[in-house]
Amino acid sequence: MPRTAAIELTPIARHHALLTEFRRTFKAGPPPLLALEGPRLLAEAIRSGVRLEKVLFSRTGLAQLGQKLLPQFSKHAELYVAEDAAFVAAMDAEHPQGVAALAQHAPATLDQVFGPEHVPALVLAAAGLQDPGNLGTLIRAADAFGATGVVALADTVSPFNPKCVRASAGSVFHLPVAAKIPAADLMAACRARGVRVVAAAARADTAAESAQLDQPTCLVLGQEAAGVPRELLRAAEATVAIPMARELDSLNAGVAGAILLYEALRQRRTPR
After folding, report:
1. By the 8 A CB rule, do 72 and 4 touch?
2. What is the pLDDT of residues 206-239, one digit of tens each?
3. Residue 167: how many CB atoms within 10 A of its CB?
């Protein structure tokens, strides 16, 4: 067995069941089992307390990364190494980075995304987004700008899609993220907690800086083309637009969400 820093790894052949499990998990995406690829994402998972079940290196990855990464892995993780071609065939990334893992991670509940009672809720709700890269970017922005959680509504791509997890740069691990939540359940939860529902719209009466986002808020974003669904626009207590110097149909959903989340943070840090 190959040894790095006195830690044993089990070598596996190209038809080993573990490689099939990686391919299947990358394709399926949703919890409780996630497939993670790349040293940065694995490091974020470990830092966030995510349990890695099985860790797989390519031969080249083990030579380049093993000395640095192996001491970080829990004693409970099973460690494997595969030939480079077999490793690449099991991954979903075009240029995998030599190490991957299967990890246990459960989605947050709807209650958890509102955060502790003493903190004004700032929930980002994604309605109808289908691009996992955009959703991952929104999760990362929500983490950076102090959101209490993210909700992917029932018609939205899974936030645990491998591409979404990568685009979140690990934020999906340390921010409460709920998936496949019916819109009616989210609206009822907001009403019960006194949380204002504010929908982003290209043509809204209220500009972002006047939207009172320092209050407990659920910010709803829709697709670039279609926007927030009509039923959610009707349920919202306010709509908000981002002022622009030039007339455009819409902004990228990730960009628009990041701007609105930053504005919420700015208002919460600026005393009225």
Report:
1. no
2. 889 999 999 999 999 998 777 899 999 999 999 9
3. 22
